[in-house]
Amino acid sequence: xxxxxxxxxxxxxxxxxxxxxxxxxxxxxxxxxxxxxxxxxxxxxxxxxxxxxxxxxxxxxxxxxxxxxxxxxxxxxxxxxxxxx
Length: 85
Known about the structure:
The chain is an alpha+beta fold and 85 residues long. The protein has one domain (3-77). 16% of the residues lie in helices and 45% in strands. It is built from 1 helix and 5 strands. It has one helix spanning 64-77, and strands at residues 3-7, 14-25, 28-34, 43-51, 56-60. The chain has a 5-stranded antiparallel β-sheet with strand order 1-2-3-4-5. It is globular, with a radius of gyration of 13 Å. The two termini are 24 Å apart. 12% of the residues are buried.
């Protein structure tokens, strides 16, 4: 399972996230990530906001309409997982 590191927006601490799935919608890349590699845990949706040769920047999806649209896609991609929004 692929891992990424990012800075938590609330604490400014570096956190490690596991990528469960990824998708692209209207040329926008999204990741479904979790802090734990297995078991029942909270998952988050990240949106790629910048990419260059050495670094990719993501932010948490906070817009409700955008979140609902993307979570529906992830529900189809990750069939064996129950989502609670």
